[in-house]
Amino acid sequence: MPSTITCNNQRSELSNTIVLTLPPGERLESQACGGGSYGDPLLRAPDSVAKRAAKVGFRRPAARHFRRRT
Prior knowledge:
The chain is α+β, with helices and mostly antiparallel strands. 23% of the residues lie in helices and 16% in strands. It is built from two helices and three strands; from the N terminus they run βββαα. It has a three-stranded antiparallel beta sheet, with no helix packed on it. A hairpin with a 2-residue loop joins strand 1 and strand 2. It is elongated, with a radius of gyration of 18 Å. The two termini are 35 Å apart.
């Protein structure tokens, strides 16, 4: 799904970077997909999942949640 922006009920696709200046009272709606990963974390190597979780900024409890349960 491409990133989109809706302004004055007109929807547009966005590039990777955009600069907008909005007048006071203007409403902006933005929709973007999140960064995915490589499949189900429970099916990947626990060390790889933990490394990825640390890289994207998950705190320790979240990283533990994604570790494979034995």
